[in-house]
């Protein structure tokens, strides 16, 4: 039994070493990918649950590696955050997403995910504003999705950053609500126009469950504060009906569409415009 235990430990060790090696490789290759234009931006629609129309697209990074195939954001975004590459990635993605959004109808917004590190860079707010100005996108059409993690950092920077951008008209969205150290304090303190309820709360989709009660409560609170409530990860029509009935104003998920390239997003919008 003792020998077995040692073997297991050794096996665990070598798989940890492998993981670390892959991490380091990905870190190096990500910098190269950013230089060589291996990354793409995909767009996932966010739908108004009353009208069924597209109100927004969330910009999501995609990496199609020439040798390794697709590397998922769940793998490379945390590595980019640890290595600092997220700043370059974020600037690149914001500019690219804003240029795409500038070609869409004016009532369709673009949402970009923002990592805590990105706002620590001096001039971060000005950088975002000049990127959208260069793209010809009105600040009111940009939404920045942040998670509760942001507020674990130095609050002075955050206050200035949020103030500067919201005064310019940029909107802030509280992402993945319910997964972190969700505190109502954040909603009270910061000017969020939207809450995205994490996918884990919609997975069931049945009325009468705990998740359903939480979605109802969050929707009710959000609405009375004048916020929009987006349900994430809607995969079935039953889930769509359930969250609409629970009071969510918007929905996002594979039931409507996966994240798609810019030309397909433009096609979706054109089809909608014709009907
Ligand atoms: P997120 O911000 O919560 O983005 C939503 C994720 O849920 C996306 O995964 C999307 O493809 C996925 N999703 C959407 N609808 C469904 C559904 O119906 N079912 C299921 N099972 N999943 C659905 P993705 O694109 O793999 O991104 C994962 C995470 O990586 C994102 O989570 C976000 O936190 C991060 N991320 C992606 N792109 C960027 C980026 O450009 N910058 C930053 N900072 N983070 C990013
Ligand atoms: Ca997001
Ligand atoms: Ca989310
Ligand atoms: Ca998420």
Automatic annotation (TrEMBL):
EAL domain mapped to chain residues: 23-273
Protein name stated in the entry: EAL domain-containing protein
Residues of the full protein shown: 372 to 646 of 657
């Amino acid at each position: 039994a003792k020998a077995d235990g040692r073997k297991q430990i050794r096996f665990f060790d070598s798989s940890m070493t492998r993981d670390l090696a892959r991490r380091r490789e990905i870190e190096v290759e990500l910098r190269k990918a950013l230089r060589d234009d291996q990354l793409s931006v995909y767009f996932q629609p966010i739908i108004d649950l009353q009208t069924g129309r597209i109100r927004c697209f969330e910009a999501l990074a995609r990496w199609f590696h020439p040798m390794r195939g697709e590397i998922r954001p769940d793998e490379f975004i945390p590595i980019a955050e640890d290595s600092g590459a997220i700043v370059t990635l974020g600037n690149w993605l914001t500019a690219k997403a804003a240029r795409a959004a500038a070609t869409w109808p004016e009532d369709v917004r673009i949402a970009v995910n923002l990592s805590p590190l990105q706002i620590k860079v001096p001039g971060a707010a000005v950088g975002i504003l000049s990127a959208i100005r260069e793209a010809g996108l009105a600040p009111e059409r940009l939404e920045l999705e942040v998670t509760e993690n942001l507020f674990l950092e130095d609050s002075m920077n955050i206050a200035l950053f949020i103030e500067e951008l919201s005064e310019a008209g940029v909107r802030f969205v509280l992402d993945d609500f319910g997964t972190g150290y969700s505190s109502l304090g954040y909603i009270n303190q910061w000017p969020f126009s939207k809450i995205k309820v994490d996918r884990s709360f919609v997975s069931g989709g049945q009325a009468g469950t705990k998740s359903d009660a939480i979605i109802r409560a969050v929707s009710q609170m959000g609405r009375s504060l004048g916020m929009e409530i987006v349900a994430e990860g809607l995969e079935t029509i039953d889930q769509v009906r359930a969250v609409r009935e629970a009071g969510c104003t918007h929905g996002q998920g594979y039931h409507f569409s996966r994240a798609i390239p810019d030309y397909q997003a433009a096609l979706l919008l054109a089809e909608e415009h014709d009907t």
